[in-house]
Design brief:
Length: 454
């Protein structure tokens, strides 16, 4: 297969990044990229979004006036992120007195090739073609004045941490001793984490299959494995046979906190794509209701359940094993609740997703300060509605993949006070994505609070 020119990948990536900056998610955009380009565009986009603050600040230093259009701006910022990567790493290492700095994901392009290919990339779209000379001038000037330019932009926190200032301020306020480490960790690529399907084999059997395939894995707990070196998921032994799922270690903790027993009537609210649904069904025979507002996302849940051997068709002999799905707004119980209360509810509610930026680096540029209060209000509305469908004596597990206290501890305290008859029980609380003593970040940022109804 012929090698794809870097100029094509840069042009395609700039187009994707422009749309992210206009408010679209990278998850929705990547499937629309030509399959031949998709892997390269994904790698470039992820790296660029992790370090966008630096490229943006440099572009503002290099342009004497506003960029001629958003597509040119994205191509320039992307090119500067790549061109300055090694220089910035060296500066960061010096300024932080030799602290460990992540470099594993830096794309390897020599400066001469990168500049030439970036200039060529302008010819791939009419909105950038007329500004070929401007892009070339900016990149050449960066090469001549890189030390001075980086020293200037380094003074900005948005450059040092590559997060919006409001986000930096929010974490500094919430975690004054840890915010720097949290921000740095969030710019490191996430390790691929797998969950072994115990209905399809043991952890030891799966580890043996990985070993035979030459795949190194680190066991994190009874169900979870991390792959230090990324492997395309379909190439991992047993994927088609449903021997494992991709799920972060933090998300896998949900089943340990929600008290479950075979035969219970359980609601997984806001369930898609079904990771926690399938984890529960791997451990227990349940009368499971799957609720999500999006019918298409519910279809993904069923596809995952079928691959894992967890659909009802795989368990016809078990009367207590039932699965039903409902496409509805969880907060609008009049449209979906049949009046039969649940023994347990898993409420993985919508949130800012501030704890999973390592896996979705576009999140930090898509979110706005007001989103935190908006999602917090929505979470309260959903949980208060779900609470009315819970049996006395039943349990509700509140979950977010956020590290903002408004969606975590502050929210849990509010719910404990305002849910009628609620007792807050021990749970993991706030999980922060920080490196352990070995330097490994084992999980994403999540929050858990468990309530029992009396």
């Amino acid at each position: 297969m012929s090698k794809i020119p870097l100029s094509e990948l840069l042009a395609e990536s700039a187009n994707v990044l422009q749309q992210v900056m206009a408010g679209q998610s990278l998850t929705s955009l990547l499937p629309m990229v030509d399959e031949r380009h998709r892997g390269g565009v994904q790698a470039l986009s992820f790296f660029a979004l992790r370090h966008w603050g630096r490229g943006l600040a440099l572009s503002e230093q290099l342009l004497s006036k506003k960029a001629p259009n958003p597509l040119f701006k994205s191509l320039l910022v992307l090119s500067l992120v790549l061109l300055s990567a090694e220089d910035f790493l060296a500066l960061e290492h010096d300024e932080t007195e030799g602290e460990d700095t992540a470099s594993a994901d830096i794309p390897s392009y020599d400066a001469f090739t990168l500049v030439n290919e970036a200039v060529k990339a302008t010819t791939h779209h009419k909105k950038t073609a007329a500004f070929r000379g401007l892009l070339n001038a900016c990149l050449r000037r960066y090469q001549r004045e890189s030390n001075e330019l980086l020293e200037q932009v380094w003074q900005q926190e948005e450059v040092r941490y590559s997060f919006p200032q409001w986000w930096i301020d929010a974490l500094r306020n919430a975690y004054p001793q840890q915010y720097k480490a949290l921000l740095k960790a969030a710019n490191r690529p996430a390790t691929l984490c797998l969950r072994v399907n115990r209905r399809r084999g043991s952890m030891a059997e799966f580890q043996q299959a990985l070993s035979e395939a030459g795949i190194n894995a680190v066991q994190l707990d009874e169900d979870a494995l991390a792959l230090p070196q990324a492997v395309p998921v379909p190439q991992i032994p047993g994927f088609a046979e449903g021997r494992f799922s991709v799920q972060d270690l933090a998300a896998q903790q949900a089943i340990k906190m929600l008290p479950l027993q075979n035969g219970q009537r359980v609601l997984d609210a806001c369930a898609a794509p079904g990771g926690k649904t399938s984890h529960m069904l791997e451990h227990y025979d349940l009368d499971m209701t799957i609720l999500d507002v999006d019918e298409r996302r519910l279809q993904r849940v069923y596809e995952n359940l079928d691959r894992l051997g967890l659909s009802k068709a795989h368990h016809e002999e078990h009367d207590g094993y039932q699965i039903r799905s409902l496409a509805a707004d969880a907060a609008d119980i009049a449209t979906w609740y049949d009046g039969q209360p649940f023994d347990a509810i898993m409420a993985d509610v919508p949130c800012t997703a501030a704890g999973i930026v390592r896996r979705h680096p576009d999140i930090k540029w898509l979110r706005r300060p007001e989103d935190v209060s908006k999602t917090s209000a929505l979470q309260r509305e959903i949980v208060q509605a779900l609470w009315t469908t819970l049996k006395p004596g039943g349990h509700l597990l509140y979950i977010t993949c956020s590290i903002f206290p408004e969606e975590g501890e502050l929210q849990a305290a509010y719910l404990a006070e305002h849910l009628p008859g609620a007792t807050r029980l021990p749970a993991l609380g706030q999980m922060l994505a920080l490196p352990d003593d070995s330097g490994m970040i084992k999980h994403d940022g999540f929050f858990y609070a468990l309530f029992q109804k009396h």
